[in-house]
Input
Amino acid sequence: MATVLAPLPPVADWLAELDALGRRAPAFFAGRPVILDLTGLRLTQADLAELVADLAARDIAILGIEGAPTGVLGPGLPPALSGGRPAGEVVPPEADASDAAPAASAAPAAPPPARSLILDQPVRSGQTILHLEGDVIVLGAVASGAEVIAGGSIHVYGPLRGRAIAGAAGQAGARIWCRKFEPELVAIDGLYKAADDLDPAFRAQPVEVRLVEDAIRLALLERG
Output
């Protein structure tokens, strides 16, 4: 099991958010195997080498890379991993300078990158999901021993039995929602409560977790 880092453009802003997490939890990546998911990014080999170096400077060692187009990986870079999500190769067409202006005017504007991460599968024990750019939505369960870390809010449409850490990028207004509340730990914006500190009356119930005046508060959700 490994932590997956999925950079979003602009990469400089993404690195700044990663630095914010590092200031809040300096040893978070210590000893963790990390996979770099490049799905959705258009990087040259030089761009990728710079990104890997930037992460190494932050003591984040990349075990392997997923979602990289053919030709981007090379000597001195982490290897591609098999069994990951396939990503189609994007090859820009060759064009001379006289063709550049018409091509640019004809191309549609690129849509803004999605800021929510949607997981169709359960988060298994030993897995860590890290997404600092927005919400994390888990359509299944978060198992005991699993960890979900979001810059925004966390939505779990099944049992929450692991650790849910919302607002990791400094968003005090982030919340945690789950259909069945059985967590090992919940945290928002650096404030946390472990299982032993949680009111047992909320166990196995649909629950919302939020911050109220720098304190974690639980509330029951209405059953549909």
